[in-house]
Amino acid sequence: MLRDYPLPRADLETLLPDKSTPIVLVKVNVCRLLEPRLNADGFNVLNKGVAIYFPSTGGQTKFHEQFANILAVGMRGQALSFFRPSLIWPFLTFLTLAPASMQDVA
Q1: Contact 50, 70 (CB under 8 A)
Q2: Domain extents for the chain?
Q3: Alpha-carbon torsion angle 37, 51, 73, 103, nearest 10
Q4: Are 75 and 99 in contact (CB under 8 A)?
Q5: pLDDT tens track for 72-85
Q6: Of 24, 86, 95, 104, which residue is least crowded by CB atoms under 10 Å?
């Protein structure tokens, strides 16, 4: 995953030219390995060190709690205009969020 990091980073830079667009990472290893690198590259990762477990068998409730907590802290009550899950590499799923004040570009 780390060896190929420049490839998904380049895709993110293409998809999100405005790096202030909030990103939520999902899956513990993705959160732990990529959050520091994405932050260092100027992306706005809302996780702030909190890993979100992948919502598989039996983990959906925990996922919803973790995701809701990250949104509550990261978005500070702002309304969202869209929610776009994106799979850009087999190991990297990210979620981008935009405040309602931004145009919906999806």
Answers
A1: yes
A2: 6-99
A3: 60
A4: yes
A5: 777 765 555 444 45
A6: 104
